[in-house]
Design a protein that fits this description.
Subcellular location: Membrane
Transmembrane segments: 34-55, 75-94, 115-132, 172-190
Number of helices: 6
Structural class: mainly alpha
InterPro entries: Mpv17_PMP22 (IPR007248)
Distance between the termini: 57 Å
Number of domains: 1
Strand content: under 5%
Number of strands: 0
Main location: membrane
Shape: globular
Protein name: Peroxisomal membrane protein 2
């Protein structure tokens, strides 16, 4: 076979890789929705922590190529066991409690997310990360006093428009993924607080 034809076939195969990955993801999403969302949450949150560490090292002008492996591991655990499943069920319940056709559904959903889910979820984040880091209650209290309100205010600023789009325009099965992709940046911000 001619080298050009071989190269064209390999380039075509590379082009179909994203399509095959998407097809596989959609199949897994249909067959195992909670597990698929948990796995993607864990992977994306861990990636967010790796990126946060890299940014922090670059900001401090550290030459070390070593990353703290425990950080991505904690975020992977949090994403797999908390973010993925909890978000999956929250979005399902939200659609049940406030159906899309209900009066003022978009605003009511956004208020439920921003005023109830966001503060509770952020509190859970601080608590679980404190436990996974092996810190005591005093450390958690100090971190909550110094970091909770700034993080919640930033959450409201950053996530309110994103969640409005997510809740009202993204199909239910993709809401967790949409939020996780946006969370790459958000968890970099949260990691910078500690």
């Amino acid at each position: 076979m001619a080298p050009a034809a071989s190269r064209l076939r390999s380039e075509a195969a590379l082009g179909s890789l994203p399509r095959r990955a998407l097809t596989q993801y959609l199949l897994l999403l249909r067959l195992y929705p909670v597990l698929t969302k948990a796995a993607s949450s864990g992977a994306l949150l861990a990636l967010g922590n790796v990126l946060a560490q890299m940014i922090e090292k670059k900001r401090k002008k550290e030459d070390s190529q070593n990353l703290d492996v425990s950080g991505p591991l904690r975020y992977a655990v949090y994403g797999f066991f908390i973010t993925g499943p909890l978000s999956h069920y929250f979005y399902l319940l939200m659609d049940h409690w406030i159906p899309p056709g209900a009066p003022w559904a978009g605003i009511r959903r956004l208020l439920l997310d921003r005023l109830v889910f966001a503060p509770a979820f952020l509190l859970l984040f601080f608590l679980v990360m404190n436990l996974l880091e092996g810190k005591d209650a005093e450390t958690l209290a100090t971190k909550m006093r110094s970091g909770f309100w700034p993080a919640l205010r930033m959450n409201w600023r950053v996530w309110t428009p994103l969640q409005f789009v997510n809740i009202n325009y993204v199909p239910l099965q993709f809401r967790v993924l949409f939020a996780n992709l946006a969370a790459l940046v958000w968890y970099i911000y949260l990691a910078s607080l500690g």
